[in-house]
Amino acid sequence: MTILWLRRDLRLEDQPALARAAAGEGAVLPLYIVDPAVWAAPEASARHWRFVAEGLAALSDALAARGVALQIEAGPPAQVLARCAARWPVTRVLTLDDGTGRDAAPWARGTGIAFEDVRASRGAASPPPGALRGLDGLVPAAIPEARDLGLGFDPCPGRPRGGRAEAERVLEAALADPASEGALSAHLAWGTLSAAEVSRAARVAGAGPLTAGLARRARLMRASSGRTDTPRPPDPAARLAAWEKGETGLPAVDAPIRALRHSGLLDPSWLGLLASAGIGLLGLDPEDCGRVLARLCLDYHPVLHRARMQAAAARPADPLRQARDLDPEGAMLGAWLPELADLPAPARHAPWTWRGPLPRPGRRYPAPVIDIATDPARPLRPAPARARRRPADRRQLAFDL
Prior knowledge:
The protein is of the alpha/beta class.
């Protein structure tokens, strides 16, 4: 009997490990392991699990239609696989390499069970799986809720849904309009779509921007990880809290993180701005920033995320210029910062320069957590430590909007 250990590959299509399992002799047991090392980590969040759970539900239905019951077990992978091997006559374990380095090969070597970490195809599509034979008497496992995993309250009202049907709809939309590809990254991260099938579809459709985005993603997956040290501010906890809630008083920083909290997705350029501003401008610890963004990003993939955070830490932080390039009319800022929505575009980017009337009495946008140069063309600079708060002046923002 073959165990097909499913990780970030929640699909039947373009799944070489499944194709290899189906081509072998004997029954196939599809198994998803809820690994506490993953789901109890500070990077994990309920929005991640809800997306995964929707993918598992769709995959379970697809497997059941082929007469195979998806099983879901919780525990360290080696222990779960050992329990399965004690219950059934397991001869091999197949899993698709998910790029994270987690496997159970050491356990398998000690038992004589063959273990294979199958590499994803980069070229031609993996052949569709043949007939599958399941184990008699098994029924599909129930899918745990986020609270069953101990994941805390995590509202994300704009989150896209998981599952293969939704992944195919998102891919079709992205091929027709590259601007609509936002949710595609989440389906790639959790494997309801494979990078290879998206790449093939993009080439056929002539979707150049989508092809370029996949190439950047592949380069990041191959990038090395490391820690970049940056000077720490005198009040790191307060700054981190303000950055995480979107209350730094810097519109270029606050708008994208509020958008990310709402939907779990963010354009890579805005995400890079957000990370580089947190690390390079506010002086926050890269690991602290990385954990916050990992929890919020629905398309979190540990390998990609490490590379992105490393790149952000090395990038000069100039959020004012970057935001003007990305959002010259201030539409993004106005959408996510209602406190500033009635200001003209230049003032949305640099509200501390606004000298006109206050448009919305009763609403307050926070003062910047760092000193702001009076000239909006000059870069932002970290504020020196203060023993007490100074009276408000023209360089500080405390609009009663």
